[in-house]
Amino acid sequence: MGNRRACTEHRNAGGDHRDATPMDHLTILYRGPLASCDYDCPYCPFAKRRDTPAQLRADRAALERFVSWVSEQTHPVSVLFTPWGEGLVRSWYRRALVDLSHMPHVVRAAVQTNLSHRVGWTADADLSRLALWTTYHPGQVPSERFLDRCRELLQYGVRFSVGVVGLPEHLDAARRLRAALPDHVYLWVNAAEGRAYTDEEAAAWTELDPLFSYSRYPHRSRGLPCRTGHSVISVDGDGTVRRCHFVPAVLGNLYDGTFRHNLTPRPCPLDYCDCHIGYVHLEPLGLYDVFAGGVLERIPRLADVK
Fold first, then answer.
1. What pLDDT digit, counting tens, does each position of 209-220 carry?
2. Is residue 5, in this structure, part of any structural domain at all?
3. What are the DSSP E strand ranges found in 40-138?
4. Which residues make Cβ contacts (< 8 Å) with residue 93, sequence separation at least 6?
5. How far apart are CA 1 and CA 32, in angstroms?
6. By residue range, what is the domain housing residue 205?
């Protein structure tokens, strides 16, 4: 989760689809009603609450309905779960990812997670499709416990990225994490909400994440072409479709199909976009080339981080 912030060929999962029509490949950012989290990070912008049993049942039913819808499609689909809280502590999110990964038309099934839950369940998934976007939260989990989870993922052969929020008090922990991880595991850094970084501070974070410059400043986006609303959509638990999480205008509903006639290339209506799950789809930034094959799980081509 962190802060602030497929398909002419399946081998291009999460890659560049500028020449594809929406039904060639549809990327879905799914966020159901789940809002509970086992962490309580003070810098996290996501809502924090304890979900009641009724709320958890509603979230489970919504997710199962969504997975059922995906199973009925005939065109390629990629899914990134972006819950307000932590999904992988819930059995239905783990099962959803396993089930999605075994659907032949699903190109990628990914989730944002704090990696607090053990990862043995990934052994049941098709690892050519599963991927995790993981975040390390110093102060919420001992570093060795988080690293143990990463080692488990490496042992199972799961694709994953690791990231931290770029706060001064996290820098030493992030350096130790980078030193402990294999070189091929990408460590990303999210700029902290509202923080203005000096060049010296930015240089320190860029040593860890050569792509930190994309997160350092909000991106001017109004009027710029963006894939959201065309080949990328946001879906909530009721099936309401929007172009992305950050633009409230409704395009229709997933389950009655009304969203489909509204899928069209369109410019961004917002002045700025400062969250990776948003600006990665801005066409002028060229990030589908930088993250070719790993857009949803935030894994760039190795050549771009050297």
1. 999 999 999 999
2. no
3. 77-81, 106-113, 130-135
4. 63, 81, 83, 87, 111
5. 14
6. 10-305
